[in-house]
User: Fold DUF971 domain-containing protein from Shewanella septentrionalis.
Amino acid sequence: MTTATPSVTDLKLKRKSRILEVSFDNGEQYQLSCEMLRVYSPSAEVHGHGNPKLVTHKKNVNISAIEPVGNYAVKIVFDDGHDTGLFSWKVLYDLATHQVDLWEKYLARLRAEKASREPLIAMNIKYN
Assistant:
């Protein structure tokens, strides 16, 4: 028996804390960091051809725009220029419900490849 993926009912971007709050029609609500969304972007650029690229230096990345795509997804535009990949409700739900495990895997991969989350250049951005 397959369960349908819940639909997103609300997205609230908290720029200062770099958090996207996602509410689903099953009553669940999650907070996803902009960094997590960026490093797990469903784009071909990140996923390649079955060989996911390690995305680094995105600790301070933020979202500059969220554009609806039909009634099943959003396109997220990040302030580092990345704007490909559609975040379907299923992708958002999977990221939200598995974020602890996914984040640990990401950190382990960073350590294994001696990579960093830290930005390459210091940026002072103020949001009103």
